[in-house]
Design a protein that fits this description.
The protein is α/β, with parallel strands linked by helices and 338 residues long. It folds into two domains: 3-109 and 330-334, 2-Layer Sandwich (Enolase-like, domain 1); 124-318, TIM Barrel, CATH 3.20.20.120. The protein is built from twelve helices and twelve strands. It has helices spanning 20-23, 46-61, 69-79, 88-108, 112-115, 136-141, 155-166, 182-191, 209-218, 231-240, 257-270, 282-291, and strands spanning 3-9, 27-33, 38-43, 124-130, 144-148, 171-175, 197-201, 223-225, 246-247, 273-274, 297-298, 317-318. The strands form two sheets. Strands 4, 5, 6, 7, 8, 9, 10, 11 and 12 form a nine-stranded mixed β-sheet that branches. It has a three-stranded antiparallel β-sheet with strand order 1-2-3. A hairpin with a 4-residue loop joins strand 2 (27-33) and strand 3 (38-43). The radius of gyration is 20 Å and the shape is globular. The model has no long low-confidence stretch (mean pLDDT 95). Bound molecules: magnesium ion. Magnesium ion is lined by residues 175, 177, 201-202, 227.
C-alpha cells in the first residue's frame, strides 16, 4: 500500500469560537492510499499547519508505505527540525500521525484501542471543563468537573458553590491557564483546604520549569499540566524533574498517538498520572481505553461538529464502539477537502 495524496483543511463550524483557535485552529488531515482507504486525523496550526502539511510533509509522504507510522514520524520530525520541535509544526505532524494511525486500524479492521491491546465498550468516566458555574444539567451529566479560573479571586467561593451543586463524592479540579505565580497558587491552595480539589492545572507558564519544581514541593494539591508541551522529548523533562503529578498531553498537538503512547509509558514507570487534554474526543479516547490505569476523559470541543462518529457522553460515561481505526466519520461531500 502506498500513500497517494495528503490533504488538509481547517473546517469552520457555525459555532467555532472567534478566538485563537480560529487563526491557529484545528485542522483535518486526510491521507489517501492506492488501496482505496483514507485515514483521517486532526491536528492544529490553522493556515500555518495546513501549509506545513501540504508542502514539507506531503512531499515526504507521497509514495511511502503508511504502515511504518513510527518511522514516518521520525522522518517528519527531522524534516521540520529547523522550524519545528515545538508548536505549530508538531501540531501539523499530530494530524498526519493520527491519520496514519487511523489507516493502521482500518487496514487491520480493528479499533485503535484493540490494536493497543485494550478493548472497546467499557464505560470511561468523563469530566467537563466549566467556564462559569456548573449548571444542573452539567452536574447531572458528568462524573467530574474542572473549573476554568484564570482570576485567582474568589476561587474558594466558586469551588464551595460547585461542591454544593455536585456533592462531595465527585472530583472537582481547577485550571488557571498559566495566569498565576507560585505565591498566588499557594495562597489559593490554602483557601481550598478541605474542599477536596483534585488538581490545580497550569498555574504557572508552561516554560517555568524551576517554578513548577518549587511549587510541586510546596503545594498540598496535585499540580497538573502539559497541554502546551510538545513531543515525548518535551515531556521527558517534566517527568524526570517531576514538575507535575498529572500529565495532560493533547494528542492533536503533542505529536499524535505515537508521542502520546511514549508519554503514557514514561508516566507509568514514574508513577505519574496521565489525563489527556480533551480526552473524550476519539483521538485520545482509544489510548485512554487501552493503556490508562486511571481513565478519566475530558469533554471535547462542542464546535468540532465535523468529526462524525463521536460517541455521546451519557450519565458521565463514554464508550468506544468497534468501528475500525479511530471510528471517525468525515462527510467529505460537505467539506472542501480538495
Ligand atoms: Mg487546561
Amino acid at each position: 500500500m502506498k500513500i497517494t495524496n495528503v490533504r488538509a483543511i481547517q473546517p469552520i463550524a457555525a459555532n467555532s469560537p472567534p478566538d485563537w483557535r480560529t487563526s491557529l485552529g484545528q485542522i483535518l488531515v486526510a491521507i489517501d492510499t492506492d488501496a482505496g482507504l483514507t485515514g483521517y486525523g486532526v491536528g492544529g496550526g490553522g493556515a500555518a499547519g495546513i501549509h506545513v502539511v501540504q508542502t514539507v510533509l506531503r512531499d515526504l509522504l507521497l509514495g511511502k508505505q503508511p504502515e511504518a507510522v513510527e518511522d514516518l514520524w521520525q522522518q517528519m520530525y527531522s524534516a521540520t527540525l529547523a522550524f519545528g520541535r515545538k508548536g505549530l509544526a508538531i501540531m501539523a505532524i499530530s494530524g498526519v500521525d493520527l491519520a496514519l494511525w487511523d489507516l493502521r486500524g482500518k487496514v487491520a479492521e480493528q479499533p485503535i484501542a484493540e490494536l493497543l491491546g485494550g478493548t472497546v465498550g467499557a464505560a470511561i468516566p468523563t469530566y467537563i471543563t466549566v467556564w462559569d458555574e456548573v449548571t444542573p444539567e452539567q452536574a447531572a451529566a458528568h462524573h467530574a468537573f474542572k473549573l476554568h479560573v484564570e482570576s485567582a479571586d474568589d476561587v474558594a467561593a466558586l469551588v464551595k458553590r460547585t461542591r454544593e451543586a455536585v456533592g462531595l463524592d465527585r472530583e472537582v479540579m481547577i485550571d488557571a491557564w498559566m495566569r498565576w505565580d507560585i505565591e498566588t497558587t499557594l495562597d489559593v491552595a490554602a483557601q481550598l483546604e478541605g474542599l477536596d480539589v483534585g488538581w490545580i492545572e497550569e498555574p504557572l507558564p508552561a516554560d517555568d520549569f524551576d517554578g513548577y519544581a518549587e511549587l510541586v514541593e510546596r503545594c498540598p494539591i496535585p499540580i497538573a499540566g502539559g497541554e502546551h508541551e510538545f513531543t515525548a522529548a518535551g515531556f521527558r523533562d517534566i517527568v524526570e524533574r517531576r514538575l507535575h503529578q498529572v500529565l495532560q498531553p493533547d494528542v492533536c498537538w503533542v505529536g499524535g498517538l505515537t508521542e502520546l503512547l511514549k508519554i503514557y509509558k514514561m508516566a507509568a514507570t514514574s508513577g505519574l498520572r496521565v489525563c489527556p487534554h480533551r480526552g473524550a474526543e476519539l483521538w485520545s479516547l482509544h489510548a485512554i481505553a487501552a493503556v490508562d490505569p486511571q481513565p478519566l476523559a475530558e469533554s471535547g470541543r462542542p464546535w468540532m461538529t465535523w468529526v462524525g462518529g463521536q460517541p455521546p457522553i451519557v450519565n458521565g460515561e463514554i464508550r468506544l464502539t468497534d468501528a475500525p481505526g479511530f471510528g471517525v466519520q468525515i462527510d467529505e461531500a460537505n467539506l472542501p477537502l480538495g
